[in-house]
Amino acid sequence: MQEQRDQVRILLCQYHLNYFWLMCELEKIGISVDKSSLSAILTGRRKRKKAETVLNGSLQVLKRYGEIYAGEEN
Fold it and tell me: H or E element: which one contains 46?
């Protein structure tokens, strides 16, 4: 899970995106998370099932963003 957290933070930085953008995109795919929970998940303070769901959803959203807007093929 540490690798997933690192990857999400790196991609957010690389694409110049913020937590609010990610929360909105997660909401669109049915994953509801508030800013403090997202922060806790990305720093490793939360590690339960919800954290895994948020991390997997985040990577899915960021992968799609990279393919569409950053011209990356994963």
Answer: none
* Cα(32)–Cα(12) distance, integer angstroms: 18
Q: What is the pLDDT of residues 13-64, one digit of tens each?
A: 999 999 999 999 999 999 999 999 999 999 999 989 999 999 999 999 999 9
Here the tokens at position 38 are: 């997202």
Global confidence as pTM: 0.89
Residue among 1, 6, 12, 9 nearest 66 (CA): 12
b/e code 54-72 from CB counts within 10 Å (16+ = b) = bbebbeebbeebbeeeeee
